[in-house]
Write a structure and sequence with these properties.
Layout: E1 3-9, H1 20-31, E2 36-42, E3 54-57, H2 62-84, E4 88-92, H3 94-98, E5 102-104, E6 110-111, E7 119-138, E8 141-157, E9 165-169, E10 179-180, E11 182-184, E12 187-190, H4 196-199, H5 201-216, H6 228-246, E13 254-255
Parallel strand pairs: 1-2, 1-3, 3-4, 4-12, 5-7
Antiparallel strand pairs: 5-6, 7-8, 7-9, 7-13, 9-10, 11-12
Helix pairs in contact: 1-5
The structure holds glutamine.
Length: about 260
């Protein structure tokens, strides 16, 4: 039986708008295919387990982020070594911001960030809130990601980080340049909560497939699943967001 190990970073502190649903989606999609996905929950003061295949960190408010960062810094070298060795990482919103090389909260507190992603985030006094459709390319395939964003941080990408997708509807990284999230080698960051992976099963499978190929070699085939429900949820989310935009019932920038 194939097996994978996933480290879930700070599950109780970094878990907004259903982020834990991403772990459930990965876990179920693996189980349905007979892949044993072991979840290792790691929090403040714990050390990172070895031989991980996937790491996940969800979103959190500025206060939690500052607390988590003081601990994450100590794990930074170990995490970077694992990433250099091919660990697949998915980071959402607050977690995504902490992987960058600078994060300033809207109250002006500044942290360096781990510098794993070449991104910089500065908190503004408006919040970017609403549903998002972003067009992405995964393994040459074009598809849409759907999700929900709620952040004050505005992120800009440096040279090394490529946008994960381009915003069709919604704000994305900063509401200005049309980019959503970032990808740097095997590290994926995004502003999409909501949960992301249950509604975007193709992305969930891409992460599982990448982790399996790294562990068991290229050519590992992922058994297809019946995704009728998941794709219907995906299509309904796209349709709902498009409808709101057609009727112009779309959120603007929310002042605090
Ligand atoms: N605190 C961050 C912001 O508002 C992240 C919020 C989140 O993870 N949703 O930008």
């Amino acid at each position: 039986m194939n097996s994978l190990n996933l480290v879930h970073l700070y599950p109780e502190l970094m878990n907004l708008y259903g982020d834990k649903g991403n772990i459930i989606a990965l876990s179920r999609r693996c189980a349905w295919r007979g892949i044993d996905l072991k979840i290792h929950e790691i929090s403040l003061g714990d050390s990172l387990p070895k031989d991980m295949d996937i790491a996940f960190i969800g979103g959190g408010q500025d206060r939690e982020q500052l607390r988590v960062y003081r601990d994450l810094e100590k794990k930074g070298d170990a995490l970077k070594a694992m990433i250099a060795d091919g660990l697949i990482v998915l980071a959402i919103c607050g977690g995504y911001q902490l992987l960058g090389r600078r994060f300033v909260t809207y109250q002006g507190e500044e942290i360096q960030g781990l510098g794993i992603l070449d991104i910089e985030t500065v908190g503004g006094d408006s919040r970017l809130i609403g549903n998002v459709v972003a067009d992405i390319r995964l393994g040459g395939e074009k598809m849409a990601l759907v999700g929900f964003e709620n952040h004050s941080g505005q992120t800009t990408l440096g040279q090394k980080a490529k946008p994960l997708g381009s915003v069709r509807l919604g704000f994305g990284n900063n509401g200005q340049d049309g980019s959503e999230g970032a990808r740097q080698d095997n590290v994926f960051g995004t502003y999409l909560h909501g949960s992301l992976l249950p509604k975007n099963p193709v992305f969930a499978d891409y992460l599982i497939q990448s982790a399996l190929e790294r562990k068991y070699g290229p050519g590992t085939v992922l058994e297809p699943l019946n995704d009728t429900m998941e794709m219907a949820a995906h299509a309904a989310a796209v349709e709902r967001i498009e409808q709101l935009h057609r009727r112009r019932w779309v959120p603007g920038w929310f002042k605090r």
